[in-house]
Amino acid sequence: MPKQRTAFRLSCILLLLPLILPGIAAAEQRPSIGLALGSGGAAGLAHIRMLQVFDELQIKPDRIAGTSIGAIIGALYAAGLDAAAIKKIFDRFAGSELDVLTQLMQPSAQLDLGDLIDIDIANGALFDSSGFLEFLAEQISARTFEELKIPLEIIATDYWTGETIVLQDGDLFTAIKASMAVPGLFTPVNQGDRLLIDGGTANPLPYDRLLEGHDIVVAVDVSGSRNRSDDKEIGWKDLVFSTFEIMQQSIIMQKLQKQRPTIYIKPDISGIRMLHFNRIETILEQSGPAADTLKAKLAQGIAK
């Protein structure tokens, strides 16, 4: 009897092999995908729309590299949240104007980023991001890079040397804090002899970290557009943030001239300032055409 059962099981396996093997082969043959999510303040909410493309195609990147807002959204995705769940997190800021320098601290009936950020002038910045990071930590179970479902690299900059610092092990939220530490706005992070600030100051679109290890490298550039504004007056806040954008765009252009990613996506985001996280619906709507382009190119790339 045991021999008959063994023979029966073996026969079933042999019959099923033609059905199983093609699926295994297809999974093994799918090109490796690296995804770079760039920095760009609120415009970086466009990353959510690009991640939705991955969800629609039912594929996951094999590695993510993110800077600043790209590090935040990349970490949430790498921890296992899908694009819809990430959108719900940022929807909670939709009722308030998140212009840190003018209205952030005004009282509001809805959840405001100002509820999550403390003034921290003593440490060389206007605000401490610890409260915001605690809020993010409530959304996922991962606390370290090692607990993530997708390998992640977070980009920061060493203030003293200007060197790009790649964070990919240990505490996840310390790395995010460093990557989003816009100079003068958020508190920098001490790491031994290093003082870590926003990764966008050195590497705002870190696709170069993925070029050697992946068949397809997708880079999403949300560094903003240089379209002329209809505003008659430009305030000092606009000058400060726009200057930061210009610097990032210059770095990215130099990188693109040297070596390009397989798929370069730059959503046409206009009329959005660095801290306009309340305008998520507008940002996602403006990201639609770029998402369509990504979907077509990515589907074509994985079909080869």
Automatic annotation (TrEMBL):
Keywords: Hydrolase, Lipid degradation, Lipid metabolism, Signal. CDD domains: Pat_PNPLA6_PNPLA7_NTE1_like (cd07205). Gene3D superfamilies: Cytosolic phospholipase A2 catalytic domain. GO terms for biological process: lipid catabolic process. Residues 1-27 form the signal peptide. A motif (GXSXG) lies at residues 66-70. Residues 35-211 form the PNPLA domain. The active site is at S68 (nucleophile), D198 (proton acceptor). PROSITE patterns: PNPLA. One of its GO terms (molecular function) is hydrolase activity. A motif (DGA/G) lies at residues 198-200. PANTHER family: NEUROPATHY TARGET ESTERASE/SWISS CHEESE D.MELANOGASTER, NTE FAMILY PROTEIN RSSA. This is Patatin-like phospholipase family protein.
